[in-house]
Design a protein that fits this description.
Layout lengths: L1 H15 L4 H13 L3 H17 L3 H14 L4 H17 L3 H17 L3 H23 L2
Helix pairs in contact: 1-2, 2-3, 2-4, 3-4, 4-5, 5-6, 6-7
Length: about 140
């Protein structure tokens, strides 16, 4: 399993370098994929603390949003985190994250049978994806 291999490699990196928030984020996501929710939450929290200490706003948003998704918080609560994160990502022209997190939020609302909000966020996700593609075309 690739997730297990990634976890083995990343946990080795993270044991040697305790402040590598990028590696911590990836390891947390891999644990989440394998449904190791407690370990993932622990790593998301560790990464959030490090990115807060380093005043890295981008990664603070990643850790908050992904931790909330991992912990399966209600869509209404997730929405607040995604809106705050997307505001930052849009200011920085990082549309791939606007697309990714808005789509995850849309799916959350869809699974909660909140079809109005699901529709709204699928549309916004589509717009963000278009902006991402437009930006890539300019390269």
């Amino acid at each position: 399993n690739l997730s297990e291999l990634a976890i083995r490699y990343l946990s080795e990196i993270n044991s040697k370098s305790t402040n590598n928030y990028r590696a911590i984020l990836i390891e947390a996501c891999e644990h989440s994929k394998l449904n190791n929710k407690n370990k993932a939450s622990e790593l998301f929290e560790q990464g959030l603390q490090i990115s807060t200490e380093l005043e890295n706003e981008e990664y603070q948003h990643h850790f908050k949003i992904l931790k909330a998704i991992n912990e399966e918080i209600p869509g209404e609560n997730l929405e607040k985190l995604v809106i705050a994160g997307n505001k930052y990502f849009e200011q920085e022209n990082i549309y791939e994250y606007v697309h990714e997190y808005t789509e995850k939020l849309a799916l959350k609302f869809y699974h909660e049978d909140n079809h109005t909000k699901a529709s709204k966020y699928f549309y916004l996700s589509s717009q963000a994806n278009q902006k991402k593609q437009d930006k890539e075309a300019l390269r």
